[in-house]
Amino acid sequence: MSESIVPPEVRPKPAVPAKPPHVAAPSPTAPHGPSGLGGGVGVDRVPGLGHSGGGSTLLGYIGIDTIIEQMRKKTMKAGFDFNIMIVGHSGLGKSTLVNTLFKSQVSRWSSGWGSEHKIPKTVEIKAVSHVIEEGGVKMKLTVIDTPGFGDQINNENCWDPISKYINEQYEKFLKEEVNIARKKRIPDTRVHCCLYFISPTGHSLRQLDIEFMKHLSRVVNIIPVIAKSDTMTPDEKNEFKHRVRKELETHGIEYYPQNEFDDDMEDKNENDKIREAMPFAVVGSDKEFQVNGKRVLGRKTAWGVVEVENPNHCEFALLRDFLIRSHLQDLKEVTHNIHYETYRARRLNDNGDV
């Protein structure tokens, strides 16, 4: 008696989920990595599943590419903090340059601090905060000025108040961080960047410049700039820049971006170009002039107008792009991961009460 043969169960093929209409279709030439992620859109293959061909095409759109949009929305809601310190003796155009950088009146002189014109007997710290909005992005900008620095006959240890202020901000952040019931978002008052203004002497760095950067380069990101560079000829400027770089190297002074913080070859190549251009020779101005039918920021001289944003006249545009458009987030990360972590480890190792 022959046995009846039961045919295998035929399962209906599942329906393919439709891709959301707002998501762009992947490029047919998009490369596929070894993990099977194609063009950041969805998973194409999963090894070990399906046919003997080594993989099986999945049936629909997953949505991994929306992670970036999710992150963008959250950070847009939270906003950003950026704290910049400006250091240099009086008359170098520190406040003007900061106003020019952000195209707003953000310096202490522009915010009601300038009622007294007397130079302080010691270094004072003046912090002014503003909320700047551009393209829907809000940033709380804090400008920390240091009036009185380098203006006295005896400038011995005049960097101590600045160093104390920087460490106080680290301490304040650390205390919030170690609290049992800490805030969901800790206010960040740490100094992310210090613009150090060098006098355009054309000769060499002053001893005060060397001592300040030597003491502070280990606790904050220092970016040296040559102020009022329009007072030098192009040859004098290039020679002075080369001499300053040589002196910084001789005294073992590291400035941002440091070589050891380059993550990969692409970062290294980009940062090498920036390091070769440092210190930036800049000119600041908040006054507009008519040049070739266009309104430009500049400084009027007997020979013409020095255009602030013209790369042939000064390196202000290079400094602005470096500081805001390409390295602002990296400045914050280096502050948190390097300078703050160094301070935190030292405080906790000392078994001090936090």
UniProtKB/TrEMBL annotation:
Chief localization: cytoplasm
Q: So which domain of life are we looking at?
A: Eukaryota
Q: Where are the transmembrane segments?
A: none
**Per its UniProt record, what SUPFAM superfamilies does this chain match?**
P-loop containing nucleoside triphosphate hydrolases
Location(s), subcellular: Cytoplasm
The Septin-type G domain covers which part of the protein? 78-350
Q: What name does the UniProt record give this protein?
A: Neuronal-specific septin-3
Gene field: SEPTIN9
